Amino acid sequence: MQDEQSLVRRAQEHDQIALTQLYEENFDKIYRYIVLKIGDRAEAEDMTQQVFLNALKSISSYKYKGMPFSSWLFRIAHNQVVDYYRRKARSTTVPLDENIVSGFDNPGLATERKMEIEQMTMATKQLTMAQQEVISLRFAGELSIAEVAKVMKKSEGAVKALQHAAIISLRKIMSVGMGP
Q1: pLDDT tens digits for range 59-103
Q2: CATH no. for residue 145?
Q3: What phi, psi does 117 have (nearest 5°)?
């Protein structure tokens, strides 16, 4: 954590190496979070870039409060997603991208993986917005309970309860969807 504080301090002083390192350490997590939330890989890439541009513009106002720097970035990303949906003003479906299942040499496994992703995406859409947010941050963003609580401005207990309820709901939805 001390290394990260030092890195952020250097970035606040416009140290290009520090800025680059923060970008490289956090880009994938922020991108996965956004793509899971909006379902459009190209748009998610653009939005992730915008998150880092916004962070760069306001990094001088960043204050360390015991949480990883990524928590601050996830808050910016969350706001980007909210703005995105406000602009769209319509419900969004998550198109399955062939790149998601890349890496499978076996077409049967690739198809099976694609179906699993589709089922999980449809099941997740049936959760409350708060449950969807917790699942996205915890599993796509790989944040801890404490980090999710900070991003969502909720207590750790509330985040744990939301995650627990979401997982139970997903199990029920998936078991019903699988059939006997």
Answers
A1: 999 988 888 899 899 999 989 988 888 887 654 444 545 444 444
A2: 1.10.10.10
A3: -65, -45
